[in-house]
TrEMBL record, chain A:
InterPro entries named in the record: FN3_dom (IPR003961), FN3_sf (IPR036116), Hematopoietin_rcpt_Gp130_CS (IPR003529), Ig-like_fold (IPR013783), LIF-R-like_Ig-like (IPR048497), LIFR_D2 (IPR040817), LIFR_N (IPR040901), Type-I_Cytokine_Rcpt (IPR050379)
Family designation: Belongs to the type I cytokine receptor family. Type 2 subfamily.
Name this protein carries in UniProt: Leukemia inhibitory factor receptor
Organism: Prolemur simus (Greater bamboo lemur)
Residue ranges of the TM segments: 834-859
Keywords of this entry: Cell membrane, Disulfide bond, Glycoprotein, Membrane, Phosphoprotein, Receptor, Repeat, Signal, Transmembrane, Transmembrane helix
From TrEMBL, chain B:
Main location, first listed in the record: secreted
Coiled-coil parts of chain: none
Protein name stated in the entry: Cardiotrophin-like cytokine factor 1
Organism classification: Eukaryota, Metazoa, Chordata, Craniata, Vertebrata
An annotated GO cellular component: CRLF-CLCF1 complex
InterPro entries in the record: 4_helix_cytokine-like_core, PRF/CT
UniProt subunit comment: Forms a heteromeric complex with cardiotrophin-like cytokine CRLF1/CLF-1; the CRLF1-CLCF1 complex is a ligand for the ciliary neurotrophic factor receptor/CNTFR. The CRLF1-CLCF1 heterodimer binds SORL1 (via N-terminal ectodomain); within this complex, the interaction is mediated predominantly by the CRLF1 moiety. The tripartite signaling complex formed by CRLF1, CLCF1 and CNTFR also binds SORL1.
Swiss-Prot/TrEMBL GO biological process terms: cell surface receptor signaling pathway via JAK-STAT; positive regulation of B cell proliferation
Molecular functions (GO terms): cytokine activity
Family: Belongs to the IL-6 superfamily.
Keyword entries, A-Z: Cytokine, Glycoprotein, Secreted, Signal
Top-level taxon: Eukaryota
Originating species: Prolemur simus (Greater bamboo lemur)
PANTHER family (UniProt xref): CARDIOTROPHIN-LIKE CYTOKINE FACTOR 1, PTHR21353
Residues annotated as signal peptide: 1-26
Length: 1097, 224
């Protein structure tokens, strides 16, 4: 038994070792098997101590216990021996012992029970691997709650001093909620043992405010000592500690005034003694979650950003209401575009954009602190106003003396978080000066001024760059940049030169630091008039001799403002020759002309302009005019605003050319204006506001030599040609029966308004009252136009007119500018007697000739006329026709005798006559019998003459001479045209009587059908064949091809079109053309064919 | 809102002028105008404030958010115990004399004005602050008018007891929700007080109306 146990134990230990390395499942399985075996063994060895088990809670001492043998009583002693190097035994009266931890390896344990009955010994092999490490149950030292943050704080001692070695400990903490102890959280917390007692803390934030439900906390631990090879187990759970809140009498809602991040989930609860009816957040009602007692909670998911006053959470309680406010917002955005600059190098302004609105206002708004790293100074941003539109914020930071580099950090903070932005600036490079003030301008001289201004700031250490805007009236602004040393007293002065005298300037200034960052705003504008200077040039001068040639008139132009350099007060004029000098002084300014009586000597005239400062240099001009013999007057027309004059360069001309011009209609002296051009130029474009279109101007080009001026060219011209404003006056000089002589006058130059290019003369027949001048240019055919381009021509003879006729004459002049108005006149030509006589004689002669011709014709055709109009009436007694008829038809008993009693030709009706028809020479009736065969074979139906007899219907059966064609008899039916439809019944009766009729004409329904096609058709429906059928050989006509669709489906009707006239259809019976003509072959005629052929005569 | 209020004020002023036009000073036969005009003026001002409060309350309740701006929201009076109550039993009200009524009015508006100024300090938006400041000015005018009426009638002004001066105390002790409830009730009490004052002044006006045309036009456009 002992051996068994002895052997058994190691095997179990071996198994245990293996178990550590195998999976849990295998371990469990082995344990199960072993337990079974152990039970089996112990049942057999109840006589000895058994089931030795050892645990430890601190790795120092092992606590071993065993089961007493079955016979052991109360006083049984046990000897517990550990068989190691120092064999030690313990005598004890109980079944457990605490022994110091044994070293690694197997230890033989012998337990001997000493009892009255005897002793029994059990031997065990003990190894550390058999020991279970079960730590002591931990104890929570303290459980506290921070209700404002819904946080639980747990504090406990790890009792690390009892463990000899460094070990890791896993703490498992459970949190239970409500009185029903619902587990809400189970967490593990890892620490390590350091060999000393240590107090640990653990905090947990509850989603449900702690006020609303009791919370319980318990914990256990698991020591994971790496050197301990035995079995490790969790400790027991500590006793739970709880946290609860003693409610007020009034209902309260938690959490109170909480700030949360937008989008987060939050639970609100209401602690109430009474029943809560409903809960709402904002306008939204929420389902209630019941907690202990009457307490309820609601869960809000994904909360949206709050309004300014927060989002209200309200619980409706019976007769009461309770609530809280939650503020959902965002943490502060990173301050954007943080920028620091200075206006005056005294104060730094840092501005930034707060970025995304946080949604929190009032005390929860973002607070900003600006911190400077080098000096350690900081300032806080105090918000005065809630900026609705996220505008820029700014802070003023007093500059630190002698510090140029600043390292700013802007901290933004609100209850939900914080952010920051930094900027490192050299403040001397970030100068944005204030707007310059007290801007003043003072004169230095006529071309220079001093500008002074005030620019607040201590810029003594830097240079300023200032920009001066100088603007003249009607001129482009000029910008001048200057660099100026910064001063402490803020006053600046600068001289500005290169200005024009007596000119109004507008100045303004702006500044920046020399290291440019930003320009200041422009200062106010200051207008200033510079002082006067002497005129820089003499006036532009010209001279003209008066019309009587005694006085010389001197003209000059006022000086332009940039040459006058001031207000011109007066002019001095002097004329000097070798002999004498005349002068006129102090001619006041608005007068720009002076007249001096001079003889014809050569004078030099000089004109001087004076202003308040002094006199201008004199401008000189010679009085002499050098004559020019070969002078021609030319024409010129301007272009647009001006007129271009060109000339060839003349080397003799040493000084300027002068072009003067005047209105040609003005009286002398002719001068409107003049213009001087340099001697090297060969063309000039004369432009003047005085030029008007349609006005003729004279232009004179003078060349200047030393002695004087010579007229080189004389030009008349228009700046723009216009149409004449008047029509030429014209009169009729002479009138004859067929011609008119017209004469007209010139148009005055003023009214011509251009160079005359010709006249247009229109004439037409017309009375004064009826003929309106309408659209002469519209090209009416009855208007004749003569264009007279020879402007010297003043008369016009209009020939080939009708006598005694009123003519409308119109004359107009034209220039290149257009047509002038019309002048019209009515003239009646004289009477023409010859024409009248001719008009009488011609009709008379015509009448005589017509009568004569008629007489001759009548005479020559008298026979025909007689036959036509007065035919001989035959005597019925001499009628041979009856006898002839009898003799011919006697042999045939079937034929009826034509009774001639009523045969009095009472009327003869000619239906139609054709030239191709064999002429019926007389009214004697040709026997139809004789005619029949010919008709049936080939006579043309157009020529068929139906002659009706007194009895409307006469039927005859005639043997057909050409009987080989269609056997049987033919019937000829003569019908009156008026009763054409009557005999339709008859042929059917005849058909029954004589089915095999002879040759000759036959009505269609009696005709035997030879054609196979028609045979089929006839068999199909005999009634259909009641229409027309050709009398003779139908096939030879070849009217329809057998395959023609029209022929097959409705043969009877279609065939009748191309056939000789039937009695039913009243059409002509023979095709009009040859048999092989395309129309007859084409399967039938169209109506158009029919009508085309009809009027062929 | 301000412009609207101003125009109504002008209208009220104009109405007052027209009402008193028959009693121009030139026609006045008595030297002392008596309390009538000032009572009338106080009454007019009360009506004007009633109107002004309607628009202010709309804005402010919207600012407080739902459910405060819902028309059927009628919470119990929580924590607003320090506010002077305007509601009074009809019998009690009838038993009050003029002096007592005026005194109660004066005291109530003194308190309400103080709370209202506290409200103004807390308001988050500038527009709301402007509206509140405008209303405070008007209410100050009403207080002055009541003091004027009391002086005319020879009643002494109530002296505030030391330590009972109502002060607005911002602090964490008062939760935001309770603060909102207070604001709600402040507006509600103001409304009731103005209604009650209008009734008081109308009653007083009728009582003080002289038998003949002894009413004098005495317009000092305080408060407008």
């Amino acid at each position: 038994m002992d051996i068994y146990l002895r052997w058994k134990r190691p095997s179990r230990l071996v198994d245990n070792k293996r178990m550590r390395t195998t999976s849990d499942f295998q371990w469990l399985l082995s344990t199960f098997v072993l337990l079974y075996l152990m039970n089996h063994v112990t049942s057999q060895r109840k006589e000895t101590p058994y089931d030795l088990k050892c645990t430890t809670n601190n790795l120092k001492m092992w606590d071993c216990s065993w089961k007493a043998p079955s016979g052991a009583g109360h006083g049984t002693l046990y000897e517990f021996c550990i068989d190691n190097r120092s064999h030690s035994c313990y005598q004890l009266a109980r079944t457990n012992i605490e022994i110091p931890a044994l070293s690694h390896g197997d230890h033989e344990i012998t337990i001997r029970s000493l009892q009255d009955a005897g002793s029994s010994t059990s031997e065990f092999i003990l190894n550390e691997k058999n020991i279970s490490l079960i730590p002591d149950t931990p104890e929570i030292l303290n459980l506290s709650a921070d209700f404002s943050t819904s946080t639980l704080h747990v504090k406990w001692n790890d009792k690390g001093s009892v463990f000899p070695r460094h070990s890791n400990v896993i703490w498992e903490i459970k949190i239970l909620r409500k009185k029903s102890m619902e587990l809400v959280k189970l967490v593990t917390h890892n620490t390590s043992l350091s060999g000393k007692d240590a107090v640990h803390h653990w905090s947990w934030v509850s989603d449900l405010p702690l006020e609303c439900a009791a919370h319980y906390v318990g914990m256990r631990c698991y020591v994971d000592s790496p050197l301990f090879s035995g079995h490790k187990e969790w400790s027991d759970w500590s006793p739970v500690k709880n946290i609860s809140w003693t409610p007020d009498s009034q209902a309260k809602v938690f959490p109170q005034d909480k700030v949360v991040l937008v989008g987060s989930d939050i639970t609100f609860c209401c602690v109430s003694q009474e029943k809560v009816l409903s809960a709402q957040i904002g306008r939204t009602y929420c389902p209630l979650i019941h907690l202990d007692g009457e307490n309820v909670a609601i869960e809000v998911h994904d909360i949206s950003v709050s309004d300014n006053s927060g989002t209200n959470v309200v619980f409706m309680i019976e007769d009461n209401v309770s609530g809280t406010v939650v503020f959902a917002g965002y943490p502060p955005d990173i301050p954007q575009n943080l920028n620091c600059e200075t206006h005056d190098l005294k104060e730094i302004i840092c501005s930034w954009n707060p970025g995304r609105p946080t949604g929190l206002v009032g005390p929860r708004n973002t607070s900003y602190t600006l911190f400077e790293g080098f000096s350690g100074k900081y300032i806080r941003f105090k918000r005065v106003e809630v900026s609705a539109n996220g505008s820029y914020h700014q802070l003023l930071f007093q500059m630190v003396p002698n510090q140029e580099i600043y390292n700013f950090t802007l901290y933004a903070r609100n209850p939900l978080g914080r952010s920051e932005a930094t900027i490192l600036v050299n403040i001397t490079e970030k100068v944005y000066p204030h707007t310059p003030t007290s801007f003043k301008v003072k004169d230095i001289n006529s071309t220079a001024v001093i500008l002074s201004w005030h620019l607040p700031g201590s810029f003594a250490k830097i240079n300023l760059l200032c920009q001066i805007e100088i603007k003249k009236i009607n001129s482009v602004q000029e910008l001048r940049n200057i660099t100026i040393k910064g001063v402490e007293n803020s006053s600046y002065r600068i001289a500005v030169g290169k200005l024009n005298p007596y000119t109004v300037y507008t100045f303004r200034i702006r500044c920046s630091a020399e290291t440019f960052w930003k320009w200041s705003k422009w200062s106010n504008k200051k207008q200033h008039l510079t002082t006067e200077a002497i005129p820089s040039k003499g006036p532009d001068t010209w001279r003209e001799w008066s019309s009587d040639g005694k006085n010389l008139i001197i003209y000059w132009k006022p000086l332009p403002i940039n040459e006058a350099n001031g207000k011109i007060l007066s002019y001095n004029v002097s004329c000097s020759s070798d002999e004498e000098t005349q002068s006129l002084s102090e001619i006041p300014d608005p007068q720009h002309k002076a007249e001096i009586q001079l003889d014809k000597n050569d004078y030099i005239i000089s004109v001087v302009a004076k202003n308040s400062v002094g006199a201008s240099p004199p401008s000189k001009i010679a009085s002499m005019e050098i004559p020019n013999d070969d002078l021609k007057t030319e024409q010129a027309v301007g272009m647009g605003k001006g007129i271009l004059l060109t000339w060839h360069q003349d080397p003799n001309m040493t000084c300027d050319y002068v072009i003067k011009w005047c209105n040609s209609s003005r009286s002398a002296p002719c001068l409107m204006d003049w213009r001087k051009v340099p001697s090297n130029s060969t063309e000039v474009l004369i432009e003047s506001d005085q030029f008007r279109p349609g006005v003729r101007y004279n232009f004179f080009l003078y060349g200047c030599r030393n002695q004087g001026y010579q007229l080189l060219r004389s030009i008349i011209g228009y700046i723009e040609e216009l149409a004449p404003i008047v029509a030429p006056n014209f009169t009729v000089e002479d009138t004859s029966a067929d011609s008119i002589l017209v004469k007209w006058e010139d148009i005055p130059v003023e009214e011509l308004r251009g160079f005359l290019r010709g006249y247009l003369f229109y004439f037409e027949k017309g009375e004064r009252d009826t003929s309106k001048i309408r659209g002469l240019e519209s090209g009416r055919s009855d208007i004749k136009v003569k264009n007279i381009t020879d402007i010297s021509q003043k008369t016009l003879r209009i020939a080939d007119l009708q006598g005694k006729t009123s003519y409308h004459l119109v004359l107009r002049a034209y220039t290149d500018g257009g047509m002038g108005p019309e002048k019209s006149m009515f003239v009646v030509t004289k009477e023409n007697s010859v024409g009248l006589i001719i008009a009488i004689l011609i009709p008379v002669a015509v009448a005589v000739i017509v009568g004569l011709v008629t007489s001759i014709l009548c005479y020559r055709k008298r026979e025909w006329i007689k036959e036509t109009f007065y035919p001989d009436i035959p005597n019925p007694e001499n009628c041979k026709a009856l006898q002839f008829q009898k003799s011919v038809c006697e042999g045939s008993s079937a034929l009826k005798t034509l009774e001639m009693n009523p045969c009095t030709p009472n009327s003869v009706e000619v239906l139609e006559t054709r030239s191709t028809f064999p002429k019926i020479e007389d009214t004697e009736i040709i026997s139809p019998v004789a005619e029949c065969p010919e008709d049936s074979s080939g006579a043309e139906p157009e020529n068929h003459v139906v002659v009706s007899y007194c009895p409307p219907i006469i039927e005859e059966e005639i043997p057909n001479p050409a009987g080989d064609e269609a056997g049987g008899t033919s019937q000829v039916i003569y019908i009156d045209v008026q009763s054409m439809y009557q005999p339709q019944v008859k042929p059917e009766e005849e058909h029954g009587k004589d089915p095999a009729g002879g040759a000759g004409y036959k009505p269609q329904m009696h005709l035997p059908i030879n054609s196979t096609v028609e045979d089929i058709a006839a068999e199909d429906d005999l009634d259909k064949t009641a229409g027309y059928r050709p009398q003779a050989n139908v096939n030879t006509w070849n009217l329809v091809s057998p395959d023609s669709p029209r022929s097959t489906d409705s043969n009877s009707e279609i065939v009748s079109f191309g056939s000789p006239c039937s009695i039913n259809s009243r059409q002509f019976l023979i095709p009009p053309k040859d048999e092989d003509s395309p129309q007859s072959n084409g399967g039938g005629w169209s109506f158009t064919n029919f009508f085309q052929n009809k009027p062929n005569d | 809102l301000d412009e609207n209020g101003d125009s109504w004020g002008m209208l009220a002023c104009l109405c007052t002028v027209l009402w008193h036009l028959p009693a121009v000073p030139a026609l006045n036969r008595t030297g002392d105008p008596g309390p009538g005009p000032s009572i009338q003026k106080t009454y007019d001002l009360t009506r004007y404030l009633e109107h002004q409060l309607r628009s202010l309350a709309g804005t402010y309740l919207n600012y407080l958010g739902p459910p405060f701006n819902e028309p059927d929201f009628n919470p119990p009076r929580l924590g607003a115990d320090t506010l002077p109550r305007a509601t009074v039993n009809l019998e009690v009200w009838r038993s009050l004399n003029d002096k007592l009524r005026l005194t109660q009015n004066y005291e109530a508006y003194s308190h309400l004005l103080c709370y209202l100024r506290g409200l103004n300090r807390q308001a988050a938006t500038a527009e709301l602050r402007r509206s509140l400041a405008h209303f405070c000015t008007s209410l100050q005018g009403l207080l002055g008018s009541i003091a004027g009426v009391m002086a005319t009638l020879g009643y002494p002004l109530p002296q505030p007891l030391p330590g009972t001066e109502p002060t607005w105390t911002p602090g964490p002790a008062h939760s935001d929700f309770l603060q909102k409830m207070d604001d709600f009730w402040l507006l509600k009490e103001l409304q009731t007080w103005l209604w009650r004052s209008a009734k008081d002044f109308n009653r007083l006006k009728k009582k003080m109306q002289p038998p003949a045309a002894a009413v004098t036009l005495h317009l000092e456009a305080h408060g407008f």
